[in-house]
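Technical annex, item 7. During the second reporting period the consortium partners agreed on a shared format for inverse folding records so that results from different sites could be compared directly. Each record opens with the tokenized structure and is followed by the designed sequence. A conforming record, contributed by the partner at site C, is shown below for reference.
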């Protein structure tokens, strides 16, 4: 069965319709790893041109439930890219200072500069996800945020930022296995917090909050991609492909040089 990555603008997203184990076509782990390598090779070259061109930027927004693989995706897709041309920003619980401003204040400051690829590990979407699930602000306030987010993203797009939003979709059973694996492996235990279990109890509320964000903020200028993420190799394949395709389409070019440089011999 085919499963769209992008939902048509305006249609209601129901996550139960999306299989987190889905694999399109006949990809397997081996062929995927090869393709991921070729994607990151190309992305490296295109990122270099984007940096040299210094006119536009790419913003990759990663969202997903705990253990969905935001860190792992970043590790894979950014491997080999010149660190000077990337900005990776994790968004944690807001500080007192951040809470003393509007919810987009801390986000806007971290938007990638021209020539860069920026990755948000969590983002402004937390302000309609965790904030909604835990009633951290009244509904009358978070309700308005969908439109505020759409307007904000539209401002960024007008400023020559291409926005890629990926929701890493995992199943509840897969999360159970990954949390257990964190507990069982001393090298991964640091990633576990008891809070992960209380969040897991609210799985249904989070899925509902995600469905609304994926529906209301699925705009033509910044569409959502729903990435089947129960298989890590497939998740990495799809995200690396989206990044590569986007950069290829942007076709960044080296800026013009001073004339007649070819005749110069440095002595
Ligand atoms: P982690 O990504 O595992 O390091 O966890 C970061 C934590 O910060 C998560 O539990 C998020 O839900 C939380 N967080 C991120 N943004 C916000 C926000 N705007 N309001 C409240 N909590 C947030
Ligand atoms: Mg965590």
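Designed sequence (site C submission):
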């Amino acid at each position: 069965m085919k499963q769209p990555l992008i939902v048509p603008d305006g249609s209601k997203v129901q996550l139960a319709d999306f299989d987190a184990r889905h694999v399109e076509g006949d990809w397997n782990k081996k062929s995927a790893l090869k393709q991921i390598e070729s994607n990151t090779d190309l992305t490296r070259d295109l990122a270099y041109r984007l940096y040299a061109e210094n006119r536009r930027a790419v913003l990759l927004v990663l969202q997903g439930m705990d253990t969905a693989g935001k860190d792992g995706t970043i590790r894979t897709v950014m491997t080999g890219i010149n660190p000077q041309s990337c900005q990776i920003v994790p968004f944690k619980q807001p500080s007192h200072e951040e809470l003393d401003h509007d919810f987009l204040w801390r986000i806007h400051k971290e938007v990638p500069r021209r020539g860069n690829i920026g990755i948000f590990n969590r983002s402004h979407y937390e302000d309609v996800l965790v904030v909604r699930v835990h009633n951290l602000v009244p509904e009358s306030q978070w309700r308005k945020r969908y439109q505020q987010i759409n307007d904000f993203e539209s401002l960024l797009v007008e400023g020559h930022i291409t926005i890629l939003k990926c929701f890493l979709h995992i199943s509840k059973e897969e999360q159970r296995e990954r949390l257990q694996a964190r507990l069982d492996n001393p090298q991964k235990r640091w990633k576990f917090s008891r809070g992960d279990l209380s969040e897991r109890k609210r799985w249904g509320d989070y899925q509902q909050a995600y469905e609304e964000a994926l529906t209301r903020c699925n705009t033509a200028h910044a569409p959502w991609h729903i990435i089947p993420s129960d298989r890590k190799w497939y998740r990495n394949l799809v995200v690396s492909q989206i990044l590569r395709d986007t950069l290829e389409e942007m076709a960044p070019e080296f800026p013009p040089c001073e004339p007649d440089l070819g005749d110069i011999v440095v002595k």
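The CA atoms of residues 67 and 177 lie 10 Å apart. The chain has one domain: 17-250. All partners now use this format for quarterly exchanges.
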